[in-house]
Amino acid sequence: MTTTSPSVRTSEFRLLATPLVLFLLVFLGFPAIVNLVYSVSQVSFETLRSPQLSGFSNFAAVWNDAAFWRSVWFSLRFGVLTALLECGLGLFLAIFLSPLIVKRSWLLAILMLPLMVAPALVGLMYRLVLHEFVGPVPYYLWTWFGAGVSFLGPGSAFWTLVTVETLQWTPFALLLFYMAYQAIPADIGEAAAIDGAGPLRRLWRIELPLMAPTIVAALLIRFIDGFRVFDNVYVLTGSGPGGATASLSIYIYEAFFKQGAIGKAVAASVLLFAASFAVLYGLNALATRRKGAAA
Amino acid sequence: MTFSQIRKAGLLATAIAALMASPALAKVTVLGWPGGPEETALRAAADAYNAKADVAENDKVELLFFNRDGFWDKLQADLAAGSTAFDVNLLATYSIGRYAPFMEPVELSGEAESVYGEAVLKTMQFEGKQYGVPTDLSLHFMYYRKDLIDALLNDDAAKARYGEISEKLLGKKLEPKDPDAWDWDDYAATALYFTQSVNPDSPTRYGTVLQIKNLLFNIMVWQSLPRAYGGDWMDAEGKVTVNSDAYRKGLETYKLLYDNGATPRDSLSYEFPEANAAYASGQVAAMLQWNAAASDLTSTEKSPAVAEVTETVAPPSGPEGRFTHIHGLGFGLNKNAANKEGGMKFLQWLSSKEAALTYARNNGAPALTPEVVKEVSEERPDLVQLGEFAGKYGYVMTGGTSAKALSVYELQAKEFTGYWSGQQSLDDALANTEKGMAELLK
Q1: Are A245 and A123 in contact (CB under 8 A)?
Q2: Out of B266, B281, B414, closest to residue A150 by CB
Q3: Which residue ranges run through the membrane (chain B) (predicted)?
Q4: Residues paired with residue B64 on neighbouring β-strands, in sequence order
Q5: B280 vs A contacts (CB less than 8 Å)
Q6: DSSP B314
Q7: Cβ separation B418–A241 shorter than 8 A
Q8: What is the pLDDT of residues A197-206, one digit of tens each?
Q9: What is the pTM of this model?
């Protein structure tokens, strides 16, 4: 048996890692550097190749822009609410429908259908569904109750958007939770039942703790997706009257394309990146500490 | 495999790649405005051009369409990046200043001036240079239900009720008038009269439908109202003048209609198609809308509930006159076009009488001179009205073709919809707009 020396192993590792490093440098590193330059420059579409350095004025403009903070607040509220609603509903459905799905697995495929529709298309679909003179929902509300309901008015647009997002993405949480629920060994439940634990006690004390890692992961994924929402909100309401439904992604898009404020848009992206990095770093540190404590 | 075989395979692959690439380079690719009558007209014009015997195979036209959502942003990004994906691209009056650095001035056919007239050709000019062929002119019509207005004008009890409503909500007693004689208060009074929440006897649910989504095109529809009261973006010295009584009047009128339920509550999310759908349902009495809606709203197939009773006039008047916003859509030449010569040939043909009539007969909306429009007046009576209104009432706001014109519209859309939705005061909306415009237009 031959052994490979450490220096050869290092050379092989470097050789094998080179394509990946090059890929990351070209497709992530270069745009990141350009973005950092743009974020401290006065730049427009005409001067993309010759930006003028301007210090931190773009960051100051974003920091002092009330619309930026409103979009941050919108994204936070939207992300937290939709993550909680989708995961809550998904968990309930996964456990409640589990006996049914076990016997008729095709039901799961039907429940997954909303995931197959592109978010922008969902937005378009609800533009029709909720239109007072075209959509079935307002039609029946008018016919049965004589009431014209405003789904996308200033007072209701946020909740309509939350509902649309929840309806589309609850199946994703349902799928994760159903898989986690099915993965719990049956003998644990049987042992608990023999020891006299009822269904609710088993759920609370055994099944939910065993599903906890999946629940946390699902909450995190859904929060990230909700926080960065763009497609369906933009199609349904745009940035809303006075910017009322502008998520952070929409704020950045509009600053870049609509206002031509490229530096400002990129500065907002950099701030978002820094905040995301801090949150993920914090979560990672917390998880590592808990793992260490458990060991 | 021997080296010789490898070399032969390589040469073959290169030849195949070259063959596959060459036809794409030779064609003239035209980027059009998708999903509306403009697309239908452009397709017909391209077919007619390609069928001409003197058009070389290499110069035949191929069409390319983006989605309408974010069209101008995508075009901006492509042009700035030096894209060669299209040779000829769509251009609008309000975006010429923005795109001119990435486009070539064009030379039109000798017939162009007699076909379109100088004023219309100017909608495609920037700093004295012609950047495009003006294929479609857009302006606004007041669409109204003739049956309802006639009934109102012939009913004394209804007239009295109309007077009561106008006195209560507008502060002055008005009498119903023929829509062609409306000022903006008459329009508002009529809208309120035909609103069931104001007048339970109204035959329609709403008196009007406002398209007031936070979208730049909706500000273009609205701004003829302040214009009729003397509103403009800037004065002769370049000072921003939107914080004025005229803009105040325009904003307050829409707010009054929205707050009194004269337009659907979801109007703040309405744009062109939603407003058309509301009007076509038969539950709306009058609507200010783009001329492009005329063919659908007067088609018995597409709008059976209203087609036969819908008529159009120019927007209402105000103390300073009667106005309709106008802008042109057209086609210009990409500075980085792969087939610049072919693109120029197509544009020259597009500015000819033959092309203009083909475009007009296939749902396009070119503003043609009286002599030329005669030839299609039977098939397209709306084009006669289009030319007439553009000539009599058309205007472009001062600064409306500048490089930042679109950004100004965006700013106004955000601030004014903020006021209409009750999220900020009128004073704040106007002050924010004035400040933002001064920054954009400096």
Answers
A1: no
A2: B266
A3: none
A4: B31
A5: 133
A6: P
A7: yes
A8: 888 999 999 9
A9: 0.82
Say yes or no to pLDDT of B20 above 50. Answer: no
Which structure tokens are listed for B224?
């003829």
**Mean pLDDT (whole number) for B107-120:** 89
Residue at B57: amino acid letter: E
Residue A138 one-letter amino acid = P
C-beta atoms of B69 and A238 within 8 A: no
Burial of A229 by CB count in 10 Å (0-12 exposed, 13-18 middle, 19+ buried)? buried
Counted residue by residue, chain A has a size of 295
Q: Per CB distance under 8 Å, which residues of B are interface residues toward A? A: 69-70, 73, 76-77, 80-81, 98, 101, 205, 212-215, 264-266, 268-269, 274, 277-278, 280-281, 283, 404, 406-407, 410-411, 414-415, 417-424
Question: What tokens were used for B278?
Answer: 């509301």
Q: Encoding tokens for residue A10?
A: 């290092």
pLDDT the model gives residue A47? 79
> What chain B residue is nearest to A237 in terms of C-alpha separation?
B269
Chain B residues closer than 8 Å to A150 by CB: 264-266
Amino acid at B191: A
Mind listing the pLDDT tens digit for each residue in B368-425?
988 899 999 998 888 998 888 887 898 889 888 788 888 899 999 999 999 999 999 9
CB contacts, 8 Å: B421 with chain A:
153-154, 241-242, 244
Q: How many CB atoms lie within 10 A of CB A9?
A: 11
- Establish, for the pair of chains A and B, how many residue pairs have beta carbons separated by less than 8 Å: 99
B422: left (phi over 0), alpha (psi -120 to 50) or beta: left
Nearest to B134 by CA among B101, B104, B102, B106: B106
Residue type at B197?
S
**In terms of Cα–Cα distance, which of B389, B382, B381, B440 is closest to B414?**
B440
Nearest-Cα distance to chain B for A66, in Å, is 12
- In degrees and rounded to multiples of 5, residue B313 shows phi and psi of -135, 175
Q: Where are the alpha helices (DSSP H) in chain A?
A: 6-24, 30-39, 57-63, 66-103, 106-111, 119-129, 136-145, 157-182, 186-194, 199-202, 208-227, 231-237, 248-253, 262-294
Instruction: Give A112-149 pLDDT, tens digit per residue.
Output: 999 999 999 999 999 999 998 889 988 888 888 877 77
CA distance A32 to A34: 5
